[in-house]
Design a protein that fits this description.
This protein is of the alpha/beta class. It has helices at 18-37, 41-53, 60-68, 75-85, 96-103, 117-127, 152-158, 178-184, 218-226, and strands at 6-9, 108-114, 135-139, 168-172, 188-192, 213-215. Strands 3-2-1-4-5-6 form a six-stranded parallel β-sheet, with helices on both faces. Strand 4, helix 8 and strand 5 (188-192) form a beta-alpha-beta unit.
Length: 250
């Protein structure tokens, strides 16, 4: 008998490489800057991308504008609008469709994601996933207080399904919020630690923020779906990784 009645996925860096969206957004922002500020588009993109690769997050446009001598006010908002408004060109990780196909009919399939609502919806459309799940919960910026690690997204997903929290599993990538939120909601959780994921090198900040299991991809996860480990048996919950060293990125 299948262990899980609901298998619910995170979006960014779980189903597709988030850096591909970032790249497209920076290209759009660089195009705006070239048209409105009279700078070289490719140079702008390379400078923005270099900051991203160096780990800059949250204030990238402010930093770039300040470095180039442009006022942040007004320009920042326009660059953000270009970034968020671009039509993304994204591709699923190769293991996503086979995994969804293998699970379909064995459990309800779902998605929980958060961010600017229009952005997340455009990502789903670009990936061909708008109708790929039994239920999708998108929490927009107006719902920020309910973003993970709040249990609220998980509670919203279960509403009306008749599925108990203990019968649901969440697959995500971010140890800063995904697994603590799932645990608070009473869900099992699995970390998909993609080699190219933005959070690949991050570790849980506390034991309760750790996933119950961890895998380098979804193909490996299917084995867990068929023969799951309970939370009491979970190696990760007890600070031991079930992934062999050769399964990790170098």
């Amino acid at each position: 008998m299948n262990r899980w009645r609901a298998v619910v996925f995170d979006l960014d860096d779980t189903l597709y490489p988030e850096r591909d969206y970032v790249r497209g957004g920076f290209e759009a922002a660089a195009g705006w800057a070239a048209a409105e500020l009279g700078v070289e588009r490719q140079v702008v993109f390379e400078e923005l991308w270099a900051m991203f690769e160096a780990g800059v997050r949250g204030d990238t446009f402010d930093r770039w504008l300040d470095r180039c001598g442009f006022p942040a006010k007004g320009n920042r908002e326009q660059m953000i609008a270009a970034y968020r408004g671009h039509q993304p060109r994204l591709e699923l990780y190769p293991d996503v469709l086979p995994t969804l196909t293998a699970l379909r009919g064995k459990a309800q399939l779902g998605l929980i994601t958060e961010g600017a609502r229009s952005v997340q919806e455009m990502k789903l459309s670009a990936l061909g996933l708008s109708l790929g799940f039994d239920k999708v919960v998108v929490l927009g910026e107006e719902d920020r207080l309910d973003w993970k690690p709040s249990p609220r997204p998980f509670e919203l997903w279960l509403m009306g399904t008749g599925i108990a929290p203990a019968d649901a599993v969440y697959l995500g990538d971010n140890p800063g919020k995904d697994f603590l939120g799932a645990r608070r909601a009473g869900w099992f959780s699995i970390r998909v630690r993609r080699p190219d994921g933005l959070h690949h090198d991050e570790e849980p900040f506390a034991p309760e923020a750790a996933p119950d299991l961890e895998f380098p991809d979804l193909e490996s996860m299917i084995v867990s779906f068929q023969s799951p480990v309970t939370r009491d048996q979970s190696p990760i919950a007890n600070h031991q990784s079930p992934i062999a060293d050769e399964g990790r990125a170098p």
